[in-house]
Amino acid sequence: MPRIGLQLYTLRDDIAQSGLEGIVRVVARMGYEGIEHGGGFGKPDPSLLNLLQEAGLSVAGLGYSLEDLETRLPEAVEYLHALNTRYAITFWIDETQRRTADDWHRLAERFDRAGEALAQYGIHYLYHLHGYEFSPVEGDKRGVDILMENTSPNAFNLEPDTYWVEYGGVDALAFCTEYAHRIRCAHLKDYVSKPEMHDVEVGEGAINMEGIVRLAFQHGWDWLIVEQERYFRTPLESAERCYHNLKRIVEAVAGR
Description:
The chain has helices spanning about 10-20, 20-30, 45-55, 65-70, 75-80, 100-120, 145-150, 160-165, 170-180, 210-220, 235-255, and strands spanning about 5, 35-40, 60-65, 85-90, 125-130, 135-140, 140, 155-160, 185-190, 190, 200, 225. The two termini are about 15 Å apart. The chain has an 8-stranded parallel beta sheet with strand order 8-5-4-3-2-1-12-9. A two-stranded antiparallel ribbon has the order 6-7. It is globular, with a radius of gyration of 18 Å. Helix 9 (about 170-180) packs parallel to helix 10. The protein is about 45% helix and about 20% strand. It has one domain (about 5-255): TIM Barrel (Alpha-Beta Barrel), CATH 3.20.20.
């Protein structure tokens, strides 16, 4: 059964005001099983390890730029292992590196190479989709197609964000179905309607979240990660509401 985690960017303002420790404890009390956050290098602060252990939270994944994984791999691996996480995730590619089909081919080579290096240490490499990957760059071929065709599933896979897939003009369920075998974790982010696409709590918007959760069960995805960037409620209220909505969906799918 996939576990439910929270991308801490959802609570960025609360963390800035109250500190990481208090917010992590609140997230654990909500019921989340893990968190996703930015990565570090070398040995993490022992207080962070103690905090996660006391809260009973796993680290679903940690974010690293492709450049950092290419130049500081041993330090990143040490940090990932210390926090006992299986996933290193790149969240963003600068626009200057993704303008043409040749750019995407070069990215595929770099992603594959970095993923092969991480795999030697038992770490899976994921790329978080943000919507720009769906723009055609070579006839009808999109950046994401070039990535998928020129990387190995043993080295490199996806963390789609359902909101940003839809923002890119693609149906999230259809895309996740097409590449279900290349997905290990997913960001679940919902929206009210197009064209404005304001974030709304998971399961209360336009995306077929039940269908996506069903794929997670069928294909053995590890994590379903809640993330919101805009809110109708306070971020803490939204995070808790998302958790309970997603928990109900997961339990309903599991019971079938």
